[in-house]
# Entry
Amino acid sequence: MSTLETIKILREKSGAGMVDCKKALEESGNDIEKAVEILRKKGIAKAAKRGEREAGEGVIKVDVGQGNKEGYIVEINSETDFVARNEQFQDFANQVMDLIKEKKPNNLDELLSLEMDEMTVKEKLGNLSGVIGEKLDIKKFNILKTEGTIAVYSHMGGKIGVLVSLDKSGENDLAYEIAMQIAATDPKCISPEELAEEDVNKEKEIYKEQLLKEGKPENIIEKIMEGKINKYFEEVCLIKQEYIKEEKKKVEDILGGAKVEKFIRYSM
# Structure
């Protein structure tokens, strides 16, 4: 029997990946039953069979580096909140964050291919999944860079994570306040100019229909709609929102000449 055929049989028996099967066969001297046992001991065969289950809990890790010029965020999922609080799971999440900071991978495939404890991140994830007994997944990550200032914020024990960049250097406290605002209010964009025209028009249509049903005269509908659209901007546009720490001010009032360049918000 060829090596390829043996790997195929082992894959069907265990549900493990090709690389893991190849390694197990080498270790077992091409004995399929021993190879299955090796994979089961490593937890790889067990983990593969969980592929269809939902990994909807987990943790969002955030960190900042390079003198507040770079920010990092990653979401790692488990099936239950109990596992998300497990020390091994948290250690793995911290290791993944350290790798992102050090290696700065361009995409998820690159991250999964990086070396961790003499194996790839993907293999380490599979092993940990087998040990813990749940499907685990690295869902996404981002790296944010600026010439200004970056702040990060984590909320609810890692259920919400935020990166935000301002265009001015040395604005650590201000950037942190803005990151807290984003975590609390979940804006869609920074300013009204960034909203898609079709989204604004859709809101206008809804308001117009509501006002016509209320029997408002056509000649004052436009004026009322203007107020409603401004209210919509206050809900979804970061700089138009009420500042959470001082209701009489808007976010744009506390920026002091700085501009929000970009923000990234993860939540679960």
Observations:
- The CA atoms of residues 189 and 196 lie 10 Å apart.
- The chain has a mean pLDDT of 91.
